[in-house]
Design goal:
9 helices, three-stranded parallel β-sheet
């Protein structure tokens, strides 16, 4: 869910970091040597996500102490009780998808990436709510009643996912992701259609990142 998004952002922010994103029950397929050389971070904004709790318990059964990011719930309670490193996200009444920056900074803190944390803080200082609202209105005017196709390079997959999640969950609008350069080999061909398919492709609008 929304708690998966920070890992995608960090993968793009620090491409040299060997990162695997696991969004299911249990753990990725790691042998005993690999698992003891891996820093496992389990993130669940609520602390009640079934997959996250199962992943934590799976790690403990294999003799690994994972790190935890949560605002509370059972996952945080397990971390506190068992002495696992953790970052508690402040519960300020927002949705997980709205806490992406908080959770990203929490990941970076557990990874001791102070320079990247400062980069994010510096970037936030440059934002203007007026500019954001103006650009958002322009985008929505451009989209109209069409379905957004979010295209961008692999390095920006995290950003594309953030937009997709917010289109889906906040505005209840369908949206889809395509990663460059892969979409150049297949997906863009649908726009070079004919009279039989133009009624379908006209329902889409591309937002290029």
């Amino acid at each position: 869910g929304g708690s998966r998004l920070p890992a995608h952002l960090i993968r793009g922010l620090i491409p040299s970091l060997d990162t695997e994103i696991h969004a299911s029950y249990g753990l990725p397929h790691l042998n005993d040597n690999e698992i003891h050389r891996t820093h496992i971070i389990i993130c669940s904004f609520s602390g009640e996500t079934a997959e996250a709790i199962d992943a934590y318990q799976s790690a403990r059964r294999r003799g690994v102490v994972p790190s935890v990011i949560a605002s509370g719930g059972r996952l945080l309670s397990l971390a506190v009780a068992e002495g696992s490193p953790y970052v508690q996200i402040p519960d300020i009444g927002i949705q997980p998808r709205e806490a992406v920056i908080l959770q990203t900074i929490a990941h970076l803190a557990l990874l001791h990436k102070t320079n990247e944390i400062q980069m994010i803080r510096d970037g936030l200082d440059l934002l203007s709510s007026e500019t954001i609202e103006t650009e958002a209105k322009d985008v929505l005017t451009f989209l109209g009643d069409r379905i957004p196709l979010l295209y961008g390079p692999v390095e920006l997959e995290g950003l594309l996912r953030i937009f997709k999640v917010n289109f889906n969950e906040t505005s209840r609008r369908p949206s889809f992701i395509g990663l460059l350069p892969e979409v150049n080999h297949n997906e863009v061909e649908m726009f070079d259609g004919n009279e039989q398919t133009s009624s379908l492709t006209s329902k889409y609008a591309v937002l290029l990142f």
